[in-house]
Amino acid sequence: MRQASAPGRRGVPPSVAALLAVAGVVALGFWLSVGRQPVTEENTQPAGVPKAGAPDPQAGFQKLAGRWLRPDGGYVMEIKTPQDNGKLEAAYFNPDPIHVARAEASWQDSTLKAFIELRDVNYPGSTYRLSYDPGNDRLTGTYFQAVARETYEVFFVRMKP
Fold this sequence. Notes:
Blueprint: H1 14-33, H2 41-44, H3 57-62, E1 66-70, E2 75-80, E3 89-93, E4 97-98, E5 100-108, E6 111-120, E7 123-133, E8 138-145, E9 150-158
């Protein structure tokens, strides 16, 4: 004779219980693995050692050193002594010297960038945002002319000593 079960209560079939247990184990495994990083060169590389193929910031900033000519107007930019922190000592000529208020180098992904801000008479915050093109050994980017409030595509070629 069968026993009557309490009203509203049913037993869970063993196959469903096993399926729920397996799903729980899988979910627990997934939850434990979230946040773990795979072992890669990036997270096993000692601090301060550049990964293979990555730009070396100190050596890369040195690529900016030299005299650069903007062929469309004869403007000359001279970059001396790039520092490890990205600060640049820079001068700008049109043809007379124009005060350089700020000059910085940085890396964006694997591209070497330079930012130059001019602050002088007729140059109230004009800026260059340039990228170094190693294949052509030139600087390309934009020039913001603050007086006219216009931006132009420009490039500089390295002047030979």
